Amino acid sequence: MRKKRFNIFKYLFILLILAIIIGAGFVWFSVNSTPVSESKTAVSQKYNHDATPITVGLNKKQLNALSTYYLEKVQSSSNDKMDYKFVVTDRAYVYGNIKLLGSKIKYVLALKPKLLSDGNIQLDADGLEIGKLNIPPKFVLSYVSRNYKIPSWVKLDSKNSKIILNVNDFGSKDNLSYRATKIDMNGDGDFKFQVLIPK
């Protein structure tokens, strides 16, 4: 009669496979279970029609300089240790770092801007690279919405892989209103905004 040998590596391998499956399930559940309430995705209706409009035009270089200035100001005053940049070239891109398994890993989120009828801007996330992996954009949107303080006029909809820039709400502190009127990504770019000064 042959004696059956106990092979511990067989059981350790099975435990490893189970741990990977459970870990992947946890990540999937975490990404997909972050419901965005209607109030977070609702587009702002604040637009003062009795205000005096001033039109401001920017090209890609000017828009990048403005976003760099604003983000540096926000990031230096934040305790979240946020580290990301917003750059417009052929598309809009967010470059940053995400902490994963104790390491900082670089990510690039590709966005396609779309002008909404009320003057706000919708950024549709259509690509995300973390390290050398291409993964669904909703992963990083969900992570950022849970772990970082985002300005109140920026709404992240991780379920639909969208970012809504409520430009109308941007100037609520100084009683100014803003409205995007044109987004042209061709060539040097042409971005037009109305600044509404109350009468």
Structural class: alpha+beta
Unreliable runs: 34-45
Q: How many individual helices?
A: 4
Q: Determine the fraction of residues in helical runs and give it as a percent range.
A: 25-40%
What oligomeric state is this?
A: single chain
| Total count of strands | 10
Rg of Cα set: 22 Å
Number of domains: 1
- Could you tell me the mean pLDDT? 77
The biggest beta sheet is recorded as: 7 strands, antiparallel
The coarse silhouette is elongated
What distance lies between the first and last C-alpha atoms, to the nearest angstrom? Answer: 99 Å
Structural overview:
By secondary structure, this protein is of the alpha+beta class. The chain has one domain (46-197). 28% of the residues lie in helices and 35% in strands. It is built from 4 helices and 10 strands. The chain has helices spanning 8-32, 38-41, 60-76, 138-147, and strands spanning 52-58, 84-88, 92-100, 103-115, 121-130, 133-134, 154-157, 162-165, 177-184, 190-197. Strands 2, 3, 4, 5, 6, 7 and 8 form a 7-stranded antiparallel beta sheet that branches. It has a 3-stranded antiparallel beta sheet with strand order 1-10-9. Strand 2 and strand 3 form a beta hairpin. The longest helix is centred in the N-terminal third of the chain and has 25 residues, at 8-32. It starts with 7 loop residues before the first helix and ends with a strand. Keywords: Membrane, Transmembrane, Transmembrane helix. It holds the Pfam family DUF2140. This is Extracellular protein. The chain crosses the membrane at residues 12-31.
